From TrEMBL:
The keyword Membrane applies. Belongs to the CDP-alcohol phosphatidyltransferase class-I family. The chain crosses the membrane at residues 21-39, 45-66, 78-98, 104-126, 138-155, 217-239. InterPro entries: CDP-OH_P_trans, CDP-OH_PTrfase_TM_dom, CDP_ALCOHOL_P_TRANSF_CS. It comes from Modicisalibacter tunisiensis. Pfam families: CDP-OH_P_transf. Keywords: Membrane, Transferase, Transmembrane, Transmembrane helix. Gene3D superfamilies: 1.20.120.1760. This is CDP-alcohol phosphatidyltransferase family protein.
Length: 256
């Protein structure tokens, strides 16, 4: 196929996405090696974190190819945040290592949280705001919260019940596959943002070595209760409008 016929068909060349993927993998390998040297982590950490990031990168490139978009600088920032999240997720299977490096893990989580505001700023600055970028950012936020919950379980700071904080959002999305009225767009609410901030700060603080388990569990319990209340209010709002004609396609619930 010639270059002109490729443009006429509306298809983007494959190789730019492959180059982006290769650069992403190389960057992640370098980051992992630096973290291993800095934290004296187990060698298998590179495998667990690498598997998670590779899967994340594969999904991102697949969705980009489907949407015929380029990655862009804002999504590159989100991808760097994904590297940090993957590094923390890969360390969850080594609880003793995490416990001995609790401050460093909290620092990585804080860096990932800080980058959460940078990607949106870059998107607005470069006029590259897109539906894909918003979805990528939201899905990474949800996964980040689930990883933090798993980290608290691995550290013995909370029971397995804390995983419900990260799992509720996925359950809500799955329910939308069977009940179309759950996919209706929700109005903006400050309540969701406030609860999201509370749960992230609570989970992140739980990684700190000096935080006692009873306090972490208590704060996480409050976060879970607030999250359940938030979902209940939104589900009630959607239920009352279940017979109204649907409009548009709602983005999945962003965690709160």
């Amino acid at each position: 196929m010639t270059e002109s016929s490729g443009r006429q068909s509306g298809r983007r060349p494959v190789w730019p996405g492959l180059v982006e993927g290769l650069l992403g993998l190389v960057t992640f390998v370098l980051l992992t090696e630096l973290l291993l040297l800095w934290l004296s982590g187990p060698a298998a950490w590179r495998l667990s974190a690498g598997a998670i990031f590779t899967g994340m990168l594969a999904v991102v490139l697949w969705r980009l190819a489907a949407s015929r978009q380029s990655l862009g600088w804002a999504n590159r920032v989100t991808l760097v945040r994904g590297m940090l999240v993957a590094a923390i997720a890969g360390a969850v299977v080594f609880p003793e290592f995490m416990a001995s490096r609790g401050g460093a893990m909290a620092g990585l989580a804080l860096a990932a949280l800080a980058l959460d505001g940078v990607d949106g700023w870059v998107a607005r600055l470069t006029h590259s705001v897109s539906r894909f970028g918003a979805r990528f950012d939201m899905e990474l936020d949800a996964f980040f919260i689930l990883v933090l919950c798993a980290a608290l379980v691995a550290l013995g700071k909370a029971g397995v019940w804390v995983l419900a904080i990260g799992a509720l959002r996925y359950g809500f999305v799955a329910a939308g596959w069977y009940a179309a009225w759950l996919r209706r767009p929700l109005p903006e609410r400050r309540r969701r943002k406030a609860i999201c901030v509370w749960q992230v700060v609570t989970l992140l603080a739980g990684l700190l070595p000096f935080m006692p388990a009873w306090l972490v569990a208590a704060l996480a319990g409050v976060a879970l209760a607030l999250l359940v209340l938030s979902f209940a209010l939104d589900i009630r709002w959607l239920w009352r409008r279940r017979h109204q004609p649907p409009f548009g396609v709602r983005s999945p619930h962003g965690g709160v």
